[in-house]
Structures are given as C-alpha cells and as structure tokens.
Amino acid sequence: MAHQPELVEFFTRHLGAGGSFATITQARKQAAEVLGEPVLPGTALAKQVDEAVEAGVVRTAQTILQTATTTHDIYDRLIELHDRQPTLNVRSSTSVLQQAYSTPIPIAFLASTLAGITPDTTVYEPTAGHGALLLGTDPAKVAVNELNPDRAADLRAQGYSVTQFDATEYQPDQQHDVVIANPPFGAVRDEQGQRQRFALPGNRRGTTQIDQAIAFQALKAIALKWPL
User: Fold this and answer.
1) Fewest CB within 10 A of the end CB: N or C in the chain?
2) DSSP 3-53
3) Domain boundaries in the chain?
C-alpha cells in the first residue's frame, strides 16, 4: 500500500487534534485531498483509507494512554475517540477470506486492562492487526504475529518485531506472561471454496472454527506459573 504512511500520518494528526469524521465518505473525501486522487467506494484504495483510519486510531489511543491520569479517564477518552471515527465497513477479498474483523479501541483497552498488561508484561498476540490489543505494551517485550502483509508493515512501523505465519500452526519460541487476541472467527474456506478443518488437542474431529484453532495454539505460548 504505497499511500499508507501518508494516510496514517494524516489520520493520526487529525484524530489526535480532536478531529472527527461523521461518515466514511467524509474521511475518503479528505483522504482524496491528501492523495490528490479520488477514493471511490468499493475499491482497493477505499479499503486502504479504512486501514489508515484504524492505524491512526491506534496511534491516537497510544498517545491517550501516555497522557491520561486514570483508567477511567483513559476509557472515557477512548470512547470519545471511537465516537469520532467513521464506521469502517469495506472488506477486501482477503479480509473476507481470512474472516478478519477489528477490535473497537475501547474494548481493546478493557481487554488489555483485564489481562493485566503493563509495559513490563511479556505478551504474545497471534493475530495483531494494527495493534489495538497491544495498548500500553513495550514493543520489545511483545511477540507479534500478523499474516496480512500491509498490517504487518504497519506494526513494524510502530516498533514491533513481526512474524507472518499461519496462527493456527505457529508458536513463538519463547513463553509469555499473557496471550491476548481477537482472532478471525467462524468457518474459513480455502481458495477452492472448501471449508477448512483444523486439528484440536484431544479432539479427533478437530474444528471448522478458526478462532478455536488459533486460541488453542496461542495458549501454548503462556508461561505457566503453577503446576498442572
């Protein structure tokens, strides 16, 4: 995505200054002015704008975490940020195939808080997207996996070291304090249109639900602090 850094910078600056978008059409119109070319609905460029908005939201949220004083203040400001972003509803053929959906930023913060994540926590995120669930982490202590090359590139731009493996099969070399994820969910079909089946431990039939397969595999990366 050749325009991605330019768009991400624009949306981060706009949202960080308190700007908003009533609709995705308004966001595309401003993106078109930045790029000097039209952004038509249903196109690859429209999806690129969506991705850049999401990346800008994550970066703005990181700034909020650094400047807010309490957990309640952070959450309230993230709700306000969420209300200022447009609805993102363009799905590419890749995102449909991979059953990829994004985590709303206030929910991502709640999940991170409930998981006890701090800058000292070692974390594994198997399907990281733009990093919404990694709010408040130290990138040096995070193992990040993201199959989509454009989102992986955005994560690297944020300072993360990123792997790009199939999360239903991949396991990082080291154990971590916390595993956090909002994986793709539901049944996934291959390029021939056949429903995929994934192996599960202790279950001979396995599962067709990709979120179950990713979760079981990712949990192997947790460093247990008590004997089984």
Assistant:
1) C
2) THHHHHHHHHHHHHTT---SSHHHHHHHHHHHHTS---TTSHHHHHHHHHH
3) 1-90, 101-228
* Domain 101-228, CATH homologous superfamily name and number: Vaccinia Virus protein VP39 (3.40.50.150)
Q: 3-state DSSP call for residue 18?
A: coil
Q: Strands 162-163, 178-179: parallel, antiparallel or unpaired by DSSP?
A: unpaired
Question: Can you give the pLDDT at residue 225?
Answer: 62
Rounded CA gap, 163 and 209, in Å? 23
pTM of the predicted structure, to 2 decimals:
0.89
| Sequence-ordered list of residues with C-beta below 8 angstroms from that of 87, at least 6 positions apart, any chain | 23, 24
Q: Which residues pair with 207 in a beta bridge?
A: 198
Q: Which stretch of DSSP H or E encloses residue 143?
A: strand 142-145
Average pLDDT across the chain, whole number = 91
